[in-house]
Every structure is written in C-alpha cells, then in structure tokens.
Design a protein that fits this description.
The structure holds two protein chains of two kinds. Helix content of chain A is 35%, strand content 20%. By secondary structure, chain A is an alpha/beta fold. Chain A has a seven-stranded mixed β-sheet with strand order 3-2-4-5-7-6-12, with helices on both faces. Chain B is of the alpha/beta class. In chain B, the strands form two sheets. Chain B has a six-stranded parallel β-sheet with strand order 2-1-3-4-8-7, with helices on both faces. The chains are: A alpha/beta, B alpha/beta.
C-alpha cells in the first residue's frame, strides 16, 4: 500500500489505462468519452494517450454501440463501453439483457462476452427522475451479468482491473457523488491511497468497512459513506458494523451472514427503489439462512417513488445519514459497548 | 449454391414433419419432439446462398429468428444445430438456446430471437475486424419487417460513420408476422434506407440466386476492400406461416399460392439446365443433401436430453467463486 491518494475517477482511469497498455484488444467506446473525457471524468486523459482509434466517441445510438460492444466482445476483443447514466439503459435494454447477458448461456458456454459496461448512478444533486436512479436491483436481477459497485478509489481500481480481465460481461456502476468531480463534491472517504501497480479485488468479496458487535449495516456505493458517518455518530450508543457489498453479482452472502450471526441485527441501506430490490434480496437471504440469529431487521431505500427534483423532496426520499441513524436506533439494539 | 438451397429446403420440410408430430390434430405447442416455436425460412434460400457464397469462416454472420438457411450456407455444424433444435445435450448450445439462438463460433455464426437486434453485434464484429486490421467482414441478415427498428437504423449510421466492413441483407418476404408490407411502409424498396445514410444499396427484385450472388459480390467486395457498409435487399417469399402452427387466417389465399408458385430453387434449376448441368447431376446433389439432412435428424433424435442440473451451468464463462455447477441459486449460500 502506498500513500499516493487518488480520487475514485482517477483510480478507475488508472486501471483502464493500465489494461489498455497491456492489451491491444482493450478499447473504450461511448458518448463523450474521447474529447470530453467522460462527463463524470471516467475517461480523463485516455484519448491523449491512446488516440481516437482506441477511445471512440460514438453517435447517440445506445442500441447500436452497446450492441457493437457485444459483437466486438464475441469476436474476442475487450471493449469498455460507457453509457453516461444508468437511467438511459432502457433505450438499449435488449442488447444488454438479451444479447450481452444471455449469449453465453444460450450458446451453452461456447460464446464469451468479455465486455465492461460502465455507467454513472445516483442522485443527491437534484437532477430529477430521469438522471438520478441507481437501478442496482434491475441489473442484479437479470442473470448473466456481473454487477460491480465500488465505493472507494482503492476498490474502484481493483474492481476495474478485474472487470476488464473478466471473460464475462460486467456492469460497472459508479456513483457520481463519489468520483471526486470539481462540480460535485464527494464526502470524505472515497479518496483513498491507491497503489500504482495493478491489483485485483475478487468479485463476490464484500468488505467489512467498519467492525462492530451490535448492528450490521449492509450497503453499497455512496451509502457506505453515509452508513460509516451514522456509525460514528452512534459510536457512544451502539457498536455498528458496516459491510460494503462491492459487487451485487456475485453476492457475498457469507460475509453478511457471519456478521448477522455476531450482531443479531440487520439494517440494509440502498439508494435504489425499495420494492423487489437489493434490500429485499439481502433480508430474504439472511432470513433463509440465519433466521434464528436474527433479532431485528430494517430496510431503508427509496420509498417507491420516482426521484423528485426539488431539494426538500429529494432529501426526503434519499436515505440520509440521519435516516440511517434513526433506523439503527429504532431496532433498539442491546448495547455491547463497555459503559 | 444449389446444394445449400436444396439442403435448406429439405431440412425445413423435414423439421416441419418432425415438429408436427404429436402436435396434431389439435395443435399443442408443448407436445412433440421439437420444443418451442419454430420459424421456417422456406422460400428464403436464395438470399443466404447468394450472399454467403462470398464469405469465409472468419467472416461473421448474424441471422434473425428465422436462421436455418443462413446457418446451413455458413457451414454451421448441421448435426449439432439439429440437436440444438431438438433440445439435446450435444446441440450447439447444449439445449439452452433452441432454434432461434444458434451460435457456432467455429464459423462465426450467431443469431437473435429479437427483431433487428442481431444487427448491432454484426456491426461490432465488423468493428473488431477493422481494429485488428484483418480483411474479415460481417453480414447482418434481417427481415423487411425489421428495418423500421431503431437497432437497424442506428446500426446503419454507426457503420457508416466508422466506415465498417458490414453488409446489411434485408430479406423481404412481404410479411411481418400478420402485417403485409404495404401496411407498414410506403417505401417498397427497403434498401433505400441507405440513401439517408449515404450507404450504397441495391435491391434484387426476385429470388434469383444468381442475381443475388452478383449483387452480393459487389457489396461484399466493397466491405472487404475497406469501402464501408452496403445494404442489399432480396425479394424472397414466405412459403409457410410466420411460425409453425400459424393458420395464416390474415393472409389472402392468392398470396399464399403466389408464394408457392415462385420458387428460387426451380429458377436456379432452369439456370443450371441452360448451363448444361443435367437433371441427373442435380438429382445427385439433391439426393446427397437429403441424405445429409436425414442423417443429421436421425443423429439428433438419438442424442440424450440434457441432465436437469445442467440448467445451472454456463451462465458465466468465468463463474464467480462460490458458484458451483449444478447448484440452485436459492439456497442462501454464496451463489448467483
């Protein structure tokens, strides 16, 4: 580990550039990825180093260029395709969930689709219902894609190395608020030391970002940092463990179960819609496997409304640090801290 | 070309027989030896034969949901393709794809069950060929009912703006399921979609395989010589319903009869006759083709069905750790 600090966007780009240097078959394709350098700084500097042939701006034709990514991947290349906002995936959904995700299975494993589809997710900046969704659950629900959600620069780099090297399609969802953009300040936390050399973080390895004995908070993306803030705020009252899922597919159920068996209390926090989503999935898995260890369960997510525009409205529906604090308190966990 | 065409026609006739077994007298889609829907392409043979004649194994072809004639011309393994259609373990996709989802990476063949959605991956294969600096090309087959889809129109633009070696082949059989062509478009020549993108285009107005061959030579030559995409439309005919079991109540009787009357195979036979190829020589080709088909069907039917546990395999090429084969994803363990 080095002390060299990086923003999350810089760490992601470092990984992409490294893979592009190592492997001629890796290229980047998307809207505004070359000259604009990615609207969320996800491709900064790549065009300068690699040129337009390997960092391709494309027409606003999501079906065509995501589908072309599938075709290039099936031909053995390793495309990294960016579609700015997860909210926009609907226009190209057939290519994503019928081709990218299913061709391996339908071919009986004879076809691989080694493609990374990256996109920005999340609200907290008043951009309303078509530019603020996370939709984690949508992509994790559909089989055939690995789904990655980093919360720190260190994780973002290691997971990106993995995503590009993986022989399967990976949906890499980064939260705008964590990227370290000049125009969208990040909370403390995502900017971390990042080694210069390459390293991978295995998919399906959740990270215990904070250890604790009383309550397990399971979350991902931006809400890892909000949960950590909440845990600090409650430090005198209750000992909170915070688990960062890091990948939704595969999902590291074991780490969650181990924690819940220790604490007996589970809170799942998600920036996606509540119904049929990540919070339901995690609580169901825990209920199936560790019901007898469970004293209390709560979930906190967007309460099934489209994300509103006006600040007080968006604040109301997005789970904030205060909401997490209250939810943990509402479980009334037995305090295990020494007096 | 003749061999591929008679193979494809006989293959579909045989599949039709097999498909209807157990599904009659009252049509029951879930009965009989061939599962699911079956979309046959009898009457489309000339487009596949004329176009694919110019291709090699390293060129990529994507076909739509009516893929058999194209697959046969492209050299897809007939035995394994048939086993796939019968849902057998030794099929191209181990019985997971079925007739609309045939993949044979050995000859770079793929197809999609969704209208027009096989087109963007063909553009991607062409992009890969260009990036790797090979002279391989890609061909996307689609129906005339698919050319109003965004996937096709976006692909035309992307292929043109990137100068990609891809040929879009429109098979115009006059019917988009139950919608006759005149009710879905005022543009009778679908290849003219190329005009809006400055893409060279040509329509072959009848299913003459030789004429398709000539037109395809030009389009494919352009792609192979790095001169960008082309569109080729071929008038074909739908000799059967949209899918097996389609009673075609929407289709005028005279249209059905007309489709039966026009026959690209008979047309090619007349051409061969003029060229001095005897009926005996043609019969010999036809007999060999039929034998090959019969053998493939017999072999396929003799293959085992997949073990139920195989349903959990092949979701990923590189299964995540914790995911074990033959393990359902609902046991609360570290799976998915």
């Amino acid at each position: 580990m080095t002390d060299r600090e990086r923003t999350m966007s810089r760490a992601m780009v470092d990984a992409i550039a490294h893979e592009m240097r190592e492997n001629e078959e890796v290229f980047v394709m998307g809207e505004d990825v070359a000259d604009y350098e990615g609207i969320f700084d996800s491709t900064t500097g790549l065009r300068e180093e690699f040129g337009y042939d390997r960092v391709m701006d494309v027409p606003i034709s999501e079906t065509a260029f995501i589908g072309a990514g599938v075709g290039a991947a099936q031909s053995g290349m390793r495309p990294i395709v960016e579609l700015m906002f997860a909210d926009f995936f609907g226009v190209a959904m057939d290519q994503i969930y019928n081709n990218m995700a299913k061709n391996t299975y339908m071919s009986g494993g004879n076809v691989s689709v080694p493609m990374t589809l990256m996109t920005a997710v999340g609200g907290t900046y008043n951009d309303a219902a078509q530019h603020s969704q996370t939709l984690y659950g949508t992509f994790a629900h559909l089989p055939g894609m690995k789904v990655v959600v980093p919360s720190t620069a260190y994780d973002a780099k290691g997971l990106m190395h993995n995503a590009i090297r993986d022989d399967d399609p990976v949906v890499y969802m980064f939260h705008k608020r964590l990227m370290g953009l000049g125009w969208m300040p990040a909370p403390d936390g995502p900017k971390t030391p990042v080694p210069e050399e390459d390293y991978t973080i295995p998919f399906g390895s959740a990270d215990v970002k904070r250890e604790g004995d009383d309550v397990t908070v399971v979350t991902l993306g931006l809400h890892v940092h909000r949960a950590l803030e909440a845990a600090e705020e409650l430090a005198d009252e209750v000992d909170v463990e915070v688990i960062d899922l890091r990948t939704l597919v595969p999902l590291d159920t074991e780490t969650i179960l181990e924690s819940v068996r220790k604490t007996g209390n589970l809170v799942v926090v998600d920036e996606d819609y509540q119904s049929f989503g990540v919070t339901g999935e995690i609580t169901a898995r825990v209920a199936e496997a560790a019901l007898e260890d469970l004293e209390g369960v709560k979930r906190l997510a967007i309460p099934d409304v489209p994300i509103p525009y006006a600040r007080p409205l968006e604040n109301e529906v997005l789970p904030g640090t205060d909401d997490i604090v209250q939810t943990i308190r509402s479980l009334d966990p037995v305090r295990s801290l020494s007096p | 070309m003749y061999e591929w065409m008679v193979t494809a026609r006989y293959y579909e006739e045989r599949l039709q027989e097999e498909y209807l077994e157990g599904k009659q007298p009252a049509f029951d889609i879930s009965a009989g030896p061939i599962p699911g829907e079956l979309h046959l392409a009898a009457g489309h043979e000339s487009s596949a034969a004329g176009v694919v004649s110019h291709l090699r194994d390293s060129d990529t072809v994507t076909a739509p949901h009516r893929p058999h004639h194209v697959a046969i011309a492209k050299g897809v393994d007939l035995d394994r393709m048939t086993a796939e259609i019968f849902g057998r373990e030794t099929g191209l996709g181990k019985g997971k794809g079925g007739h609309m989802h045939l993949f044979d990476p050995d000859v770079n063949f793929a197809c999609s069950g969704i209208i027009a959605q096989g087109v963007p991956p063909a553009v991607g294969a062409a992009l890969a060929a260009k990036k790797r600096n090979t002279d391989d090309i890609a061909v996307a087959f689609l129906g005339e009912g698919a050319i109003d889809q965004g996937a096709f129109l976006e692909s035309l633009n992307l292929a043109k703006v990137q100068d990609l070696p891809v040929v879009f082949v429109i098979e115009d059989n006059d019917w988009a399921i139950s919608m006759p062509k005149e009710r879905i478009t005022d543009v009778q020549d679908g290849s003219r979609r190329g005009e809006g993108h400055d893409i060279p285009h040509e329509r072959v107005g009848h299913d003459d395989a030789v004429e398709v061959f000539e037109a395809a030579r030009e389009a494919i030559g352009r792609a192979r010589d790095d001169n960008g995409p082309s569109i080729l439309e071929v008038q074909v005919h739908r000799r059967m319903g949209h899918f097996m079991g389609d009673a075609e109540a929407y289709r005028p009787e005279e249209d059905k009869e007309a489709a039966q009357m026009r026959d690209s195979i008979e047309r090619l036979e007349a051409t061969m006759e003029d060229a001095g190829i005897t009926a005996d020589e043609r019969d010999s080709i036809r007999t060999d083709a039929q034998e090959r088909v019969d053998d493939a069907i017999a072999w396929a039917k003799d293959q085992p069905e997949p073990e139920p546990d195989a349903a959990y395999e092949d979701v990923f090429t590189n299964p995540p750790s914790g995911v074990t084969d033959a393990e359902p994803a609902t046991d609360g363990g570290e799976t998915q």
